Each structure stands twice: as C-alpha cells, then as structure tokens.
Amino acid sequence: MSRITGAERVYQAVYADIQGRVLRPGEVVREDMLAKQYGLSRTPVREALRRLVQDGLCEKHGSGLRISLPTLDQVHEIYPIVSVLEGLAARLCAEQMTSSTLEELESLDAGMRDMSAAGDTAAFVEANQQFHDVILMTSNNASLVQTVQRLRLITLALRRYQLRIGSRMDQSSGEHRVLMNAFRSRDGPAAEEAMRRHVDSGHHILVTALSRDALFDPHEEPTPGPDVHTQEPVDPSHEE
Length: 240
Prior knowledge:
By secondary structure, the protein is mainly alpha-helical. The protein contains ten helices and three strands; from the N terminus they run H-E-H-H-E-E-H-H-H-H-H-H-H. Helix 4 (about 70-95) packs antiparallel against helix 7, helix 4 packs parallel to helix 9 and helix 5 (about 100-120) runs antiparallel to helix 6 (about 120-140).
C-alpha cells in the first residue's frame, strides 16, 4: 500500500473542510498555518494549494488561498455540464435500480416533502444532498462520480443558496416526484430527461437571483423580491 504524501494529506484535509462547510466561501487559508498544523514544510503545502486552485475551489490570496465562490460566468459554464452528467447518472441509476435503493430514495423524497411543507430549509438541503448522492453512487461509474463530486463542491454554496429562494423547495420536490416516477419504472431515458430538467430549473432560478443580488452573501437569506418560477415539472414518460 502506497504511503500518502504530505501534499496529498493537506489537499484531502482542506477538500474535506470545504465539503463539510468548515471552510466557507470567502474564508482564507494561510500557507504558513497549514504547514504548522500538519508539521510540514511549505513545499508540500504549496503543492496542495496549487491543486485546490486548479480544481476551482480556491483562489490565490496573499501567501494563502481564499475559498472561492463561482462567478455568474462560471455558473453559466458549469451548470450545463452538471446537467448532462447528473442526467447520465440518473439514467444509469434507473437502469441499475434495486429495491433497496428505490426504498432509500422513496424515504428521502417523502422526508423532503415534509420538510418543504414545514419550511425547514436546513433539513431539506441536507436531505437533498443525500438524495442526489444516492443517485450518483448508484450509477456505479467511478469516473462519473469523481467528476460530478468535484463540480458539486465548486457550486456547493450556490446550490444551498438557491434552495432558499422563494418556493424553490416546493418546485424541487415536484421535480423529484417526476424523477421518482422514472425510477419506479426503471426508465433510464425518462430519468435522464427528468434530472436534466431539474438541474436546468435550478440553474435558471439561481441566475435570476444572482442577477438581482449582484453582491450577495451565500450564508444569508436571498434579497426579498418577486418569486422565481419555472414551468411545472413535466413527466417525460407522459409526453407525446
């Protein structure tokens, strides 16, 4: 078994802190502090930070890095890619669906409907993450999982933000309902189409909100304004 390098150890630790929201957009990590924390010279720390910049998770800031928040242009670039890849994951998930996986998704879906009705955004956000994680992991495609997880991490704060906009939780639940119908039928193409519409809907709502809140804090509630609506979710299996 190969020994993990110091650079890899720092990279994985900072990556996990971003994923776990220990480090949030705008926060700064300093090279010297990381070197001291992990008992390393600055060379492996610098290598780890360079990888984080290349992954789009951080940006250079003095002698350290600042956790990045995607720009509007980056949102326009990333979301169409996520739409295609998450759509593929949904198709593969549907085609390999087992009774136990379907039961897990049913439970998460039902829970999110209750959370939406109760206005419990924090719980909905966490359950939504689990729901999408189950779908992704059931694709059984390691390269797809790795790529989607990296893109999700870049947009983590924004995805949490868009679920706090207006009636987005209710809309998301409706889109999940269409997706679940495809999963119950083990209909891969319908699941792919439903997931792509779901991701595209979130993209539209997010861009509209960001255009209104040019300078926003992703940890605060969105600026009050007209609710952002999309078309009612369409079940692809019912289209002519």
